[in-house]
Specification:
Distance between the termini: 29 Å
Helix content: 40-55%
Radius of gyration: 22 Å
Oligomer: single chain
Strand content: 15-25%
Number of helices: 9
Number of strands: 8
């Protein structure tokens, strides 16, 4: 999830664990713990694109990391707050839950997490977009209300618990909505007589009303979307796999790793002799049917025996275009 959401979750967890003893400092250090796992993004400054992508939501998002570093961070915080009633064990417990709940929340997103690192399997329920106001905004409101209460006040504890209960209930609801959307896509494929190998579904950006599906067929991937406000049949658009365009590049280590990262959900496109590796899991960069650029696309540049993989940039205009087309599509076709 986005940094703000992880800060809010971490702060709430910190308050539950140690709020009565240290007051608002529990929220502060809980928020810090909730952001630590995402420091893995710094790897992009000193690693190649493929390796940095592999590391993202890997080791730092694992149970192992939480267990290993909670006592270390707990000792650091205890050293800075030795005058408080909280012990090193108390602070370590707070840091553990701040670190651990971060990847649990991320597991609901499309990218998922390597919660059981060093195993490479990513836990990804794909029921929440990385930014979801319906999860975050109510949580923030309850947390702010708690901040203005005395550390021993019952209202403070109630506000934080309400925030946790409502946000967690919403996460469970997204799994139900995902199941309903999956059924709608499945029925549409059956009605249209489309044979397929596998399908996955995920919410469109910023909401859980509009859902998107990737469907694998023999030589192409189909993509479609469904809103709970739709009144017309689901339309699927085909994107050729074009895996053969990779040629000998498919044997390159970086390409093999990219394929593993995408779990096989990728296409290859060619523009003016330049090859691009497209990650299908996050869909297109816009809901506009005329746009064919994928949200995550990588330019492949063979250099001798090696290959340079460069992630294609995204711009502010892309976000504006997405928001405009998304808003229209949510309300039905």
């Amino acid at each position: 999830m986005d940094s703000l959401t992880q800060i809010v979750l971490g702060a709430a967890v910190g308050e539950v664990v140690l709020g009565r003893k240290v007051g608002n400092r529990a929220m502060l250090y809980g928020a810090i713990a909730g952001t630590i796992p995402d420091l893995d993004v710094l790897t992009r400054f000193f690693m190649d694109t493929v390796t940095a992508t592999e590391w993202h939501r890997g080791f730092s998002h694992s149970i192992f990391f939480s267990i290993l570093f909670a006592p270390v961070f707990g000792w650091l915080v205890w050293s800075l707050n030795s005058k408080e009633d909280a012990s090193w064990k108390d602070w370590s417990w707070l840091m553990f839950w701040g670190l651990f709940t971060h990847p649990i929340l991320d597991a609901f997103t499309t990218w998922g997490t390597q919660l059981f690192w060093p195993l490479k399997t990513r836990l990804a329920f794909q029921s929440v977009f990385v930014i979801d106001p319906l999860y975050t905004v109510p949580f923030i409101i309850f947390l702010i209300l708690a901040l203005f209460q005395n550390r021993t006040a019952l209202e403070r504890k109630r506000y934080v618990k309400l925030g946790l209960i409502i946000s967690s209930s919403y996460l469970l609801l997204t799994l139900v909505l995902k199941g309903i959307a999956f059924g709608k896509f499945e029925k549409a494929l059956e009605v249209q007589g489309i044979a397929y190998n596998q399908m996955n579904t995920r919410p469109a950006p910023f909401n859980t009303i509009l859902w998107m599906a990737n469907i694998e067929t023999e030589d192409a991937y189909l993509m479609g979307n469904y809103s709970f406000f739709d009144s017309k049949p689901i339309v699927f658009t085909a994107y050729p796999k074009n895996h053969e365009l990779l040629g000998s590049l498919k044997s390159k280590d970086k390409i093999k790793r990219l394929i593993q990262i995408t779990e096989g959900w990728y296409t290859i496109s060619e523009k003016k002799g330049q090859l691009y590796f497209n990650d299908l899991r996050f869909g297109l960069i816009s809901m506009d049917e005329t746009v064919t650029q994928f949200a995550f696309s990588y330019k492949l540049e063979p250099i001798g025996e090696d290959i340079i993989v460069e992630e294609m940039p995204k711009f502010k205009r892309d976000a504006k275009h997405l928001m405009a087309s998304l808003w229209l599509r949510i309300w039905g076709n």
